[in-house]
């Protein structure tokens, strides 16, 4: 069978599987961070953390990734996550409140929140779409 490459077939499948696992690991890592930050970083004293750790084990997440997320939440790691709230008014005077957990305020505002608003823009005619975002609860609807 000339032209047949077993590695090429494996590579295509592996890339898709790795991307899928990466998304799952990212979500679990964020959940681990939140659980460890909200309570004790020791799973014996924090049932929420213990539950997320079981979820990580079920997804075959490496132990060093789990430990890294817990260390980051307890202050051992480098990045500091913070909860940020954006408030504003959207199309037709609709009140919008976006809460996000981020390690980079600029990226969250510029990329993630704008992406959500672009999705809203597809539902609303452009001439009616005006939005103003204000950082941290200054409006408090």
TrEMBL record:
Keywords of this entry: Cytoplasm, DNA-binding, Transcription, Transcription regulation
Residue span, TACO1/YebC-like second and third domain: 81-116
SUPFAM superfamilies xrefs: YebC-like (SSF75625)
Superkingdom: Bacteria
Residue ranges of the region described as Disordered: 1-22
GO MF term (any one): DNA binding
InterPro entries membership: Integrase-like_N, TACO1_YebC-like_2nd/3rd_dom, TACO1_YebC_N, Transcrip_reg_TACO1-like, Transcrip_reg_TACO1-like_dom3, YebC-like
Domain TACO1/YebC-like N-terminal: 5-75
GO terms for cellular component: cytosol
Similarity remark: Belongs to the TACO1 family.
Protein name, as recorded: DNA-binding regulatory protein, YebC/PmpR family
Protein species of origin: Lentilactobacillus kisonensis F0435
Higher taxonomy: Bacteria, Bacillati, Bacillota, Bacilli, Lactobacillales
């Amino acid at each position: 069978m000339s032209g047949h490459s077993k590695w090429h077939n494996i590579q295509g499948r592996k890339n898709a599987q790795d991307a899928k696992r990466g998304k799952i690991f990212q979500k679990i890592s964020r959940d681990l961070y939140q659980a460890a930050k909200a309570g004790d970083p020791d799973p014996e004293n924090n049932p929420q953390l213990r539950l997320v750790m079981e979820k990580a084990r079920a997804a075959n997440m490496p132990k060093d990734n789990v430990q890294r997320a817990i260390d980051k939440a307890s202050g051992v790691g480098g990045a500091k996550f913070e909860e940020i709230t954006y408030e504003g008014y959207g199309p037709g005077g609709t009140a919008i409140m976006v809460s996000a957990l981020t390690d980079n305020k600029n990226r969250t505002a510029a990329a993630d929140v704008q992406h959500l608003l672009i999705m809203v823009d597809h539902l609303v005619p452009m001439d009616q779409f005006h939005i103003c975002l204000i950082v941290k609860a200054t409006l408090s609807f």
